[in-house]
Design brief:
This protein is an alpha+beta fold and 232 residues long. It has helices at residues 11-18, 85-90, 168-175, 181-187; strands at residues 5-7, 29-32, 37-42, 50-54, 72-74, 92-97, 99-105, 111-118, 124-134, 140-149, 162-163, 165-166, 196-200. The chain is globular. The two termini are 29 Å apart.
Length: 232
C-alpha cells in the first residue's frame, strides 16, 4: 500500500534529474494524497511532465454512479488483471517523488507514521500506469496508480507492501514503448534496502489538510503519553 508521498524538490531539480521539461510552476508538496493532481512522466511524452490525478476508476466501475478509485496495483499481477493489463502494455508512467509514508500499528487505535526516502534524500520515481477517460462534463481526464511489490528489509518492519521504485536505467526501460513484457516485469521488484532509510514523522501527515515542511521532519519515537519530539 502506498497512500501518501512527498515531492518537495524544486522545478529545476526535477527537470535536471528526469531530463524533462516542466511548463508550469511547481509548489513543494509534503503530503500528496489520492485524487490530487500531480506531475508524472509518461511513455508517450517522456521528455515532458504531465499532470494527472492519482486514482484510477477500473473498467468494471466506469458506468456506475459511484466507483471506488484504485490508487495501487500489485506488480505481480498487473500484466494479468483485466483492469490493468492494457495500461501495463500501452500506458506506463513514472511518478517523481522524494519520499513516501507508511503507518505502523501500535494497538487497535494507535499508529505511528514513518517516512521512507533514499539515503541521500535524492529524487526517485515510482512505477505506474495511467488511464484516460471522459468526465461527466465532457472533459478528458488522465489518472494514474502506483505499482506495489513485496517490501525490502527497511519497509518490512512497518508494512507488508512497498511502492515499486525505479532507478534511472529502469526508468528508461519502463518508459520505452518497445521494452518486452518479460523485461518490464523484471523491473518490478523491491528497491535495495541498502539505499533506503526510514524514520518516524509527525502525525500531522495523518490529515490531508496538512501540507507543510513540518510533516517531513524526523521525530523521536512516540513516548508513553503519545507525544513526539521534532528534530531539526
Amino acid at each position: 500500500m502506498c497512500g501518501r508521498y512527498s515531492l518537495s524538490k524544486s522545478k529545476e531539480e526535477l527537470e535536471e534529474r528526469f531530463q524533462a521539461e516542466m511548463f508550469t510552476d511547481l509548489k513543494p508538496r509534503y503530503n500528496i494524497a489520492p485524487t490530487q493532481l500531480v506531475p508524472v512522466i509518461t511513455s508517450q511524452s517522456p521528455k515532458g511532465f504531465s499532470y494527472f490525478y492519482w486514482g484510477i476508476t477500473p473498467e468494471f466501475g466506469k458506468n456506475r454512479p459511484v466507483a471506488q478509485k484504485l490508487i495501487n496495483a500489485k506488480a505481480e499481477t498487473v500484466n494479468e488483471k483485466i483492469s490493468f493489463k492494457t495500461a501495463f502494455r500501452q500506458r506506463r508512467c513514472i511518478i517523481p517523488a522524494d519520499g513516501f509514508y507508511e503507518w505502523k500499528r501500535l494497538g487497535k487505535k494507535t499508529s505511528v507514521p514513518y517516512r521512507f526516502t533514499l539515503r541521500e534524500d535524492e529524487l526517485f520515481s515510482f512505477a505506474g500506469i495511467w488511464e484516460e477517460y471522459e468526465s461527466v462534463n465532457g472533459e478528458t481526464q488522465h489518472t494514474f496508480l502506483i505499482l506495489t511489490t513485496t517490501p525490502n528489509k527497511v519497509v518490512s518492519e512497518i508494512h507488508d507492501r512497498m511502492p515499486v521504485i525505479l532507478d534511472r536505467d529502469a526508468e528508461k526501460k519502463w518508459l520505452d514503448k518497445y521494452t518486452e513484457e518479460e523485461d518490464l516485469l523484471s523491473l518490478l521488484k523491491p528497491y535495495s534496502a541498502d539505499s533506503m532509510t526510514g524514520f518516524t514523522v509527525s502525525p500531522l501527515v495523518n490529515s490531508v489538510q496538512n501540507d507543510s515542511p513540518a510533516i517531513i521532519r524526523k521525530t523521536s519515537p512516540m513516548d508513553q503519553h503519545g507525544n513526539y519530539t521534532l528534530f531539526g
